[in-house]
C-alpha cells in the first residue's frame, strides 16, 4: 500500500505527517513529527532568516527525510509558508534543503495555503448550503476563506500571524501592558477592515485551524454539532487573563509548550477580533491543517480521483473574476482562450508541452487585456503587474509568474532577459513563456477587432513551415494580415516559416517582420 508524506515548514514550527492509503478514502496514520524551529523569529522585523534558524531547519529536514525513507514513503510534498516567503534570503533555505537534506521545498503563497486548508477541512466537515468562514492562524499570516458548500468563494491572506505580531508588539517573557494590548487590538482591527470578504458577510459557521486555535479550544471548549469548538466569550476572558501574566506563569498554570506560550496570546487577540467581525459565538476546531490538505491532494492524485477539470474550472473562474474587477472585454477574453487552446492542441507535436501548460495558456488568454484598466498604450505591462500581484487560488507562485509573463508578451517586445519579470524565471519557465506567448499572439490577432469574426483556426505543420487557416463569416483579411504580422515571435521560437491563409486558401499572407517593437 502506498505511503505519502507532508512537510509543513511554518513560521513557528516544522511538521511531518506520514500516512498509508488503501483507497482515496481509506487512510491511516503511520507517523507524525514536529520540530520546534521558529523560522519567523526576527524575519518579520529584519526581513531575513537567521543563519542559525536556517541551519536548524535543514537539520530538521534531514531528520524528516530519513524518517520518510525508513517508512517507505513513495510520494511527498514539502511547503514553506510566510517566514520563508517574506525573507529576502528565503532561497538560501530552499537551496540548502534540496542540496543537503534532499528535500524539494515549495514556497507557497497565502492563497495556496488557504486552498490546502480548505481541502483538509472539507474532508472532515459538511457545510451543506451554509456559508462558512475558514480562519487559518499561522505564525506569519492568517488566511481567511469564504466557502459555500464545497466551493471557495473568496480568499485573502493577511499579515496577522502570531509570531509576526509577537515580534512586533510584545515584549518577551513579560506581561502585556494595557498600552501594548490596545495597540495590538487596533492594528488587528485595522487590517481586518481591509479584508473585503468580511464586509457584510453573513456567516453561518466559523472554522478555526492551526495549533494555537486547537490549544485555545482546549482551554475554552464549546460543544458544536460539528465536533470540537472554542467558546468565543470564554476565549475573550481567557485572552485578558493570559495577557496579564508573565510568560513563566502562563506556562506553569496552563501547561503550555515553550514555543506556544508566547504566541497563544496574539492568536487569541486575532481570533476574538475575527469572531466579533462576523458575529460568531463559537469557532469549530476540526483539528486539521495545511499538512492534511497536502496529503489530501497527494492521495487524490495517486488514486486518480483528483478533479482536474473541476480544479481548472475553479481557477479559470477566479481569472474571470479578476478580469471583471478590471472591466475587461469578457467575450473577447473567452474567445481568445478557446482559440489559444485549440491552436495549442494542434501544435502539440511542435511545442511538446502538456496539460498544465495548456491551462496556463488559457489563463493568460483570459487576463491578457486587463491592463487596459490602467491604460491602453502599455496595457501588456500593466497586465503583468496586475496578474503577478493578484491572488489566484490554486496556482503556485511560479505558475502565476509564468501566466503573468505570457500575458505580458501577447504584444510588443519579445521576451527578453533585460525585463525583470522574465529574468526571474528559471530556464524552463522562460522556454514555456516563449512558446505560449508565441501562440497567444496569433490567437489574439485572430480577434483583433473583438468581433469574433474568426470563429475557429487550423494549424498545420508541414516540413519547415506552419500554415494557419482562419475560418469565419465575412472578410477576414484584416485578421489574417494581423496574424501574419504577429507571427514573428512564433517563427523565432519554433524555427518555422509561417503562412496565414483563408478558408479557401486564397490571399495567403506570409509572415513579415513588423516594425521595431518598443518594450
Structure description:
- With 519 residues, the protein is α/β, with parallel strands linked by helices.
- It has three domains: 3-109 and 293-302, 2-Layer Sandwich (Nucleotidyltransferase, domain 5); 126-285, Exopolyphosphatase. Domain 2 (Nucleotidyltransferase, domain 5, 2-Layer Sandwich); 308-510, Hypothetical protein af1432 (Orthogonal Bundle), CATH 1.10.3210.
- It has 22 helices and 16 strands.
- The chain has helices at 43-46, 51-70, 82-86, 90-100, 110-124, 162-169, 178-193, 211-219, 232-243, 247-254, 264-278, 290-302, 308-325, 330-346, 348-351, 355-367, 379-388, 397-408, 420-423, 427-445, 477-485, 488-494, and strands at residues 3-9, 14-21, 27-35, 75-80, 105-107, 131-137, 142-148, 151-158, 205-209, 221-224, 227-231, 282-284, 454-462, 465-472, 497-501, 509-510.
- The strands form four sheets. The chain has a five-stranded mixed beta sheet, sandwiched between helices.
- Strand 1 and strand 2 (14-21) form a beta hairpin.
- Helix 8 packs across helix 11 and helix 16 packs across helix 18.
Amino acid at each position: 500500500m502506498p505511503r505519502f508524506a507532508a512537510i509543513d515548514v511554518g513560521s513557528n514550527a516544522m511538521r511531518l505527517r506520514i500516512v498509508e492509503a488503501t483507497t482515496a478514502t481509506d487512510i491511516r496514520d503511520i507517523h507524525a513529527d514536529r520540530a520546534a524551529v521558529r523560522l519567523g523569529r526576527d524575519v518579520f522585523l529584519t526581513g531575513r532568516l537567521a543563519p542559525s534558524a536556517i541551519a536548524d531547519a535543514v537539520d530538521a529536514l534531514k531528520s524528516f527525510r530519513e524518517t520518510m525513507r525508513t517508512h517507505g514513503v513513495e510520494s511527498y510534498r514539502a511547503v514553506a509558508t510566510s517566514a520563508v516567503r517574506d525573507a529576502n534570503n528565503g532561497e538560501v533555505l530552499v537551496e540548502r534543503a534540496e542540496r543537503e537534506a534532499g528535500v524539494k521545498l515549495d514556497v507557497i503563497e497565502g492563497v495556496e495555503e488557504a486552498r490546502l486548508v480548505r481541502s483538509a477541512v472539507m474532508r472532515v466537515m459538511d457545510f451543506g448550503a451554509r456559508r462558512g468562514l475558514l480562519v487559518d492562524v499561522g505564525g506569519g499570516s492568517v488566511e481567511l476563506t469564504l466557502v459555500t458548500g464545497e466551493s471557495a468563494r473568496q480568499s485573502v491572506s493577511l499579515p496577522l500571524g502570531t509570531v509576526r505580531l509577537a515580534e512586533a508588539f510584545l515584549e518577551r517573557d513579560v506581561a502585556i501592558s494595557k498600552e501594548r494590548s490596545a495597540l495590538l487590538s487596533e492594528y488587528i482591527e485595522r487590517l481586518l477592515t481591509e479584508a473585503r470578504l468580511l464586509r457584510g458577510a453573513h456567516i453561518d459557521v466559523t472554522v478555526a485551524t492551526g495549533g494555537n486555535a486547537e490549544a485555545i479550544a482546549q482551554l475554552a471548549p464549546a460543544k458544536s454539532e460539528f465536533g470540537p469548538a472554542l467558546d468565543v466569550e470564554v476565549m475573550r476572558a481567557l485572552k485578558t487573563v493570559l495577557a496579564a501574566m508573565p510568560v513563566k506563569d502562563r506556562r506553569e498554570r496552563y501547561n503550555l509548550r515553550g514555543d506556544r506560550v508566547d504566541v497563544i496570546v496574539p492568536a487569541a487577540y486575532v481570533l476574538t477580533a475575527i469572531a466579533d467581525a462576523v458575529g460568531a459565538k463559537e469557532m469549530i476546531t476540526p483539528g486539521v491543517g495545511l499538512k492534511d490538505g497536502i496529503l489530501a491532494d497527494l492521495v487524490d492524485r495517486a488514486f486518480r480521483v483528483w478533479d482536474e477539470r473541476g480544479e481548472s474550472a475553479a481557477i479559470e473562474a477566479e481569472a474571470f473574476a479578476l478580469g471583471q474587477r478590471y472591466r475587461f472585454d469578457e467575450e473577447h477574453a473567452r474567445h481568445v482562450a478557446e482559440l489559444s487552446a485549440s491552436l495549442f492542441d494542434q501544435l502539440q507535436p511542435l511545442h511538446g508541452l502538456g496539460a498544465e501548460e495548456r491551462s496556463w495558456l488559457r489563463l493568460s488568454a483570459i487576463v491578457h487585456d486587463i491592463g487596459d484598466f490602467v491604460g491602453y498604450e502599455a496595457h501588456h505591462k500593466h497586465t503583468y503587474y496586475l496578474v503577478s500581484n493578484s491572488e489566484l487560488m490554486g496556482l503556485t507562485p511560479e505558475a502565476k509568474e509564468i501566466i503573468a509573463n505570457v500575458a505580458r508578451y501577447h504584444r510588443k517586445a519579445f521576451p527578453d532577459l533585460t525585463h525583470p519579470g522574465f529574468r526571474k524565471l528559471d530556464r524552463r519557465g522562460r522556454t514555456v513563456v516563449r512558446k505560449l506567448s508565441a501562440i497567444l499572439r496569433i490567437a489574439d490577432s485572430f480577434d483583433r477587432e473583438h468581433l469574433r469574426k474568426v470563429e475557429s483556426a487550423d494549424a498545420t505543420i508541414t516540413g519547415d513551415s506552419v500554415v494557419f487557416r482562419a475560418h469565419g463569416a465575412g472578410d477576414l483579411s484584416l485578421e489574417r494580415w494581423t496574424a501574419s504580422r504577429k507571427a514573428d515571435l512564433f517563427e523565432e521560437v519554433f524555427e518555422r516559416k509561417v503562412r496565414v491563409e483563408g478558408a479557401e486558401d486564397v490571399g495567403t499572407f506570409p509572415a513579415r517582420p513588423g516594425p521595431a517593437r518598443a518594450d
